[in-house]
Structure formats: structure tokens, C-alpha cells
Amino acid sequence: MELTSILLGSQSNNEKERDQCLTLLENAQSENLSLFLKRLCEELNNEESPIEARQLAGLILKNNLYSHDENRRKELAEFWVSCKADYRQELKQQLFFALNSNSKQIRRTSAICVSVIASVEYPIGEWKSLFEDLIQLIEYFKNSKQVSEGVLVCLSFICEELGDENECSEISLILEPILNIIQQNEEEIEIRVASITTLLNSLGFVWEIFESKEDTQIIFNTIFSCIKNSENEQLIDLSFQCLVKIAYLYYPSLDPYMDDIFQV
């Protein structure tokens, strides 16, 4: 059976078919995990496969890279890092391609998988070009709104996965593309929401930006614009959350903007 059929069968209401397909998946995983993960990546990136099969492939992939159990998570991370660099790069490339999927669900699933890999590789210096790679993806697909949204969701997940305890000054590279996307997509609410969410999740890493009055002003102007020029409640709420987080992290930077804050 091909992987697509096995994945769909593993969710079947027919108990016999479901058990058979689950056994096939377990055997493939235990016999050759590297090959199994590669096949899952290919399935996730296959636009001709049903969404259900692709999402399940991404979920299984994620579960073989990350666990909430600390010991298991360490084992999975050690396995991934032990794989050859070319192999890891190939899988990451497949996941990047999936960020351009026609399906929002697949873009989100791929973004989660990328963020999990980033949480393993980036802290140990194995993916130093992470943020540059994501920016280049936006630039390569310059007119693709779905790539912009996919990358933004991915960046947001990455910020969550890395956490404030990780040194991540390179994340400041993403601020300009984020702010540009917000300004260039005034009518695209989903993209603006993804952008402001990413901005919110990245604020803990970009302290260097708030040492520049010019950069600080751009950030505040963007946030105020989202509040004043939108009727979308989610976008407005996220923008206010940005103000709250800036107040918590960079309180002195608020002083020149107090009148504006009171106005909104």
C-alpha cells in the first residue's frame, strides 16, 4: 500500500483496516525511521494528496521530533542531530516548500514542524541561517500571500519554541519584513493578523531594536495603525497586547508615545 492510503486507512472506521494500517506505520517507523520521516515530508508536501493524509503525515512527523516528556524529547533531538546534514537539509527544504501550500492547514502544519526542528537545531548552532532562510523564502515568492502567511506563522511558532531564555539576536532580521508585510497588505486581514502575532511573539528577542529611536518609532506607528485603521477585533486585540508587552519589556521607550497610547 502507498503511504497516502495507509495514512487514510489508519483513521478508518473499519477496525480491521485501521489496525492493519497502524501496524504498517509502526513497522515503517521502527524499521527505518530516517526513511519514514522523509516519506512523511514528501506526503506533507504533495499537493495532490488529500488534506487529511497530509495533515496526519505532518502530525506523525512532529511527534517523531518532539515530545512533551523531557527525556523522550531529548532522545528525539539526539536522533535528529545524529542524522547527516544533507538529509536534514532535504527535509527542511520539503517543509519550506509546504509553507507555500494552497491549504492553510498544511501551511500551519509545516510551520509547526519547522519550528520544532528549529527548537532542536538553533540553540546548538546547527541552523544559523534560520531567519535568513525564511526571509529569502518570502523574497523568492515575492507576490505570494500564502507564502507570506506561512512564513509568518512559522516565525511565530519558532519564537514560542525558542523562548526568551535563548539568545536570539538574529531574530531582529525579521522585523523589517514583518512591518513591510503589515503595511503592504492593508486589505488582507489574515496576513496582518499573522504579522502582528509574529511581532508580538518576537518582542522578547529584539531589545537592540528598541535602542534605536527611529526603529522604535516604526514599530509604534505600525501598532497604532493596526488599532486605528482596522475594525478587526483580533487584530486590534493583538496590537494592544504588543503595547502591553513593550511596556513590560521596554518601559522607558513608551515615554514619547504616551499621548498616542491614551488616544487609542
From TrEMBL:
Pfam family, one: IBN_N
Name of the protein: Importin subunit beta-1
Main location: cytoplasm
InterPro entries assigned to the protein according to its UniProt record, in alphabetical order: ARM-like, ARM-type_fold, Importin-beta_N, Importin_beta
Intracellular or extracellular location(s): Cytoplasm
Taxonomy, superkingdom: Eukaryota
Cited PANTHER family: IMPORTIN BETA
Domain Importin N-terminal: 21-101
Assigned keywords, A-Z: Cytoplasm, Protein transport, Repeat, Transport
